[in-house]
Amino acid sequence: MNFPDTSAESATGAPVCSAKGCRADALWVLAWNNPKLHTPERRKTWLACGEHREHLAAFLGVRGFLKDVVPLAEWESSASGG
Ligand SMILES: [Zn+2]
After folding, report:
1. Domain-by-domain residue ranges, the chain?
2. With bands split at pLDDT 50, 70 and 90, how would you rate the model's confidence at 81?
3. DSSP line for 19-80
4. What pLDDT score does 82 carry?
5. What pTM does this model have?
6. Which residues lie below 8 Å from residue 49, measured CB to CB, with a gap of 6+?
7. How many Å lie between the centroid of ligand 1 and the Cα of residue 55?
């Protein structure tokens, strides 16, 4: 998918997919935790576009790190809600 002009969003730093080399807008947040590095309540996050969500989730899942996958809009609304 190509959007003709996303300058309005990119100017505000629209979130981009965390997959290597991917510049697509992020649609998903993958929350994960590495118990060797992080305390249990800590959450690291990766962003994923629709195309890379499964790939990134699988990468974390096989390591046992993946905690949650939520839509970006939902994640942001819950984060801003405090
Ligand atoms: Zn991507």
Report:
1. 14-80
2. low
3. STT--SBP-EEEEE--TTTS-TT--EEEEE-TTTHHHHHHHHHHHT-EEEEEEHHHHHHHHH
4. 53
5. 0.78
6. 17, 19, 22, 24, 25, 26, 27, 28
7. 9
CA of 34 to the centre of ligand 1 (A): 22
Residue 17 CA, ligand 1 centroid: distance in Å: 5
What single letter denotes the amino acid at residue 20? K
Backbone angles phi, psi at 42, to 5 degrees: -70, 140
Q: How far apart are CA 25 and CA 47, in angstroms?
A: 9
Ligand 1 centroid from CA 13, angstroms: 16
For residue 81, how far is its CA from the centre of ligand 1 (angstroms)? 27
